[in-house]
Amino acid sequence: MKVIYTDKQAEFQFLDEMNRRAGEVNFSVSESVLGILKDVSMKGDKAVREYGEKFDGACPASFEISKDEMKKAYDAADERFRNALIHAKENITRYHEQQVQKGYELKKENGVILGQIIRGLNRVGIYVPGGTAAYPSTVLMNAIPAKIAGVEEIIMVTPPLVEKDDTGNLTCRANPDILAAACLAGVDRVFLSGGAQAVAALTYGTESFPRVDKIVGPGNIYVATAKKLLFGQVDIDMIAGPSEILILADETANPRYLAADLMSQAEHDPLSSAVLLTRSEAIAKNTLNEIELQLKGLDRKDVIRQSLENCSAIMVCSGMEEMLELADLIAPEHLELMVKDPMDYVNKIKNAGSVFCGDYSPEPLGDYLAGTNHVLPTSGTARFSSPLGVYSFVKKMSYTCYTRDALAQDKDDIITIAEKEGLGAHANSVKVRFE
Ligand SMILES: NC(=O)c1ccc[n+]([C@@H]2O[C@H](COP(=O)([O-])OP(=O)(O)OC[C@H]3O[C@@H](n4cnc5c(N)ncnc54)[C@H](O)[C@@H]3O)[C@@H](O)[C@H]2O)c1
Ligand SMILES: N[C@H](CO)Cc1c[nH]c[nH+]1
Ligand SMILES: [Zn+2]
Asked: Which protein residue's CA is at the shortest distance from atom 6 of ligand 2?
């Protein structure tokens, strides 16, 4: 892991590398994803099946998992795991219920009524990745806010687990932990399909897959590219890139905790980023030593080593002011304040997905249990985008009701502006009411 001494040059070069690592368009991936999207739009289930066989090795006879199977997976889940999920669900629900927005109505003195209604989306698709990144916690983080928002139907897609049976034939099944979480979170229907073909199936609708209004959830580059390309025909949440953590530490911070927390996010992906900002050389040195010590006992040491070498660094800064400035430029997904009186600094942070304050709020607390959402903007997009929340699953509709007298008061101004725009039919629609 590199150590950078800030000099108004080295740190900016590093920031540039970091923010470029996930946001660039990959033209060859885009081209192959476009082909998949076109095929699914034209051939429906047949194309979804063909691409499933090609990329996953096999495809289930029927894409949909029955409600019964979901319930069975939930009942069969290990009791401690089930109880932990229930605990997480309670906390996520309580936090997200605070995000419910109400519409409003403005009644003016002249009888005019103006208002806004907030409605949950009708049907939402949740993409849940397969492979080693199959996280039941991500199912809760996506489905619970959707439920609270009043989404009528939640459809989940996830790639099948493909295994060889005794006779050497390939079989498909769903990850049982994912199914258990889906059952608990109130997902309505689950389909076994992944990749760009599943995103396309949810966008266009096929014989088996219902068409949805919005697709949320993380995925690999094929999933992310499909979401980017289809945005407009369907709404999307965001393009969540590899996980990130940025820690701001003063002399009071404990290097054991700093090392552990940096590696908690480094283990997600070889492109994950873990950055420590400190003004103390001793903290920098002791954290590097701790990383080496703790790494030996961690299962995913290979992934961690790669991400610590790739897009990670310890930066020795001139002071807290510089650390706060750099934090806003990095705009990290997760930001830990490992400083004395951390709550004094929360309001000084402008750009971050989720902030964790002090020694006893390690980032994984937010990944699983505190109740805040773990689907967060990455790659610097916290400059303009927010955590997934109840507000991600609603849309707004405005309404207007005028009386004749109220329209008479406003008619001349409407006609004046309409005529300035050269839109005579607009002006006429008001004029005819007073002839
Ligand atoms: N930010 C978060 O909250 C969060 C949570 C979980 C996972 N993730 C991320 O999600 C990603 C999961 O990736 P994954 O690959 O394990 O699962 P995935 O479900 O995203 O992708 C698997 C699918 O990719 C398709 N695919 C594979 N090779 C292909 C090819 N050559 N051409 C076209 N399609 C192809 C297949 O159809 C397969 O079903 C990881 O990057 C992980 O870090 C993020
Ligand atoms: N830290 C991830 C988002 O960057 C979310 C997650 C799920 N499970 C564990 N972690
Ligand atoms: Zn995590």
From this structure: 367
Residue nearest ligand 1's atom 28 by CA:
55
Distance CA 359, CA 336 (A): 9
Which residues does 168 contact at the CB level (< 8 Å), separation at least 6? none
- pLDDT per position in the chain (435 positions), as tens? 999 999 999 999 998 888 777 666 788 899 999 999 999 999 999 999 999 999 999 999 999 999 999 999 999 999 999 999 999 999 999 999 999 999 999 999 999 999 999 999 999 999 999 876 789 999 999 999 999 999 999 999 999 999 988 898 899 999 999 999 999 999 999 999 999 999 999 999 999 999 999 999 988 889 999 999 999 999 999 988 889 999 999 999 999 999 999 999 999 999 899 999 999 999 999 999 999 999 999 999 999 999 999 889 999 999 999 999 999 999 999 999 999 999 999 999 999 999 999 999 999 999 999 999 999 999 999 999 999 999 999 999 999 999 999 999 999 999 999 999 999 999 999 999 999
Read off the amino acid at residue 6. T
Note whether 125 and 156 are within 8 A (CB): yes
Which positions are annotated as active-site residues?
333-334
For a pocket test of ligand 2, which of 261, 307, 367, 378 has the largest count of ligand atoms closer than 8 A to its C-beta?
A: 367
Q: Which atom of ligand 2 is nearest to the CA of 264?
A: 1
The verdict on whether residue 137 carries a ligand-binding annotation is no
Could you give the residue ranges of the DSSP H alpha helices within 211-254? 221-230
Strands 214-216 and 235-236, how do they pair? parallel
Site to probe by mutation for ligand 2, drawn from 128, 132, 137 as the one with most ligand atoms within 8 Å of Cβ, is: 137
Global pTM value: 0.95
Residue 268 assigned ligand-binding role? yes
Residue 50 to residues 170, 282, 285, Cα–Cα distance (Å): 15, 57, 53
Task: Looking at the CA of residue 138, tell me the nearest atom of ligand 2.
Answer: 7
Sequence-distant (≥ 6) Cβ neighbours of residue 315 within 8 angstroms: 3, 4, 5, 6, 11, 14, 275, 276, 277, 278, 326
All domains of the chain, ordered by start, with CATH? 2-24+242-383 (3.40.50.1980), 44-236 (3.40.50.1980), 405-434 (no CATH)
**Cα–Cα distance, 294 to 305 (Å, whole number):** 12
Does the Cβ of 133 fall within 6 Å of ligand 1? Answer: yes
87 is in an annotated binding site: no
